[in-house]
Design brief:
This protein has a domain of about 70 residues. The chain is built from 4 helices and 5 strands; from the N terminus they run βββββαααα. It is globular and about 35 Å long. The chain is of the alpha+beta class.
């Protein structure tokens, strides 16, 4: 899952699977700078990604067990104080509560 500045959703096929690109203004995302061997750019924070995944749990085309594993890995890296701030700022309070459906507690 990724976001980009456009007006429609796109799918990009990679060697490991299909990536769904969703249009969303940068102002509606909590982003952080990320650097890798491929370059530098802005990506959604661990906390935003975790809340996005759980808020759309029913629409993702991945197994629920895989989604749960991804959420647990993100939760282990998340700063819960920041997660609460992100949930409040970007209207994801319900998503924060929904983590418990995957056995994730603060």
């Amino acid at each position: 899952m990724a976001s980009y500045p456009s007006t429609r959703t796109r799918e990009v096929t990679t060697i490991v699977g299909t990536v769904q690109l969703f249009a969303r203004p940068i102002e509606k995302m909590d982003v952080v700078r990320f650097e890798s061997d491929f370059g530098a750019g802005m990506v959604t924070s661990v906390e935003m990604t975790m809340l996005d995944l759980v808020s759309g749990a029913d629409k993702w085309s991945i197994e629920r067990s895989d989604l749960g594993e991804a959420l647990r890995l993100l939760a282990a890296k998340a700063n819960w104080e920041i997660a609460e701030q992100v949930a409040t700022r970007y209207r994801r309070a319900t998503a924060l509560k929904s983590l418990s459906k995957f056995g994730i507690e603060r």
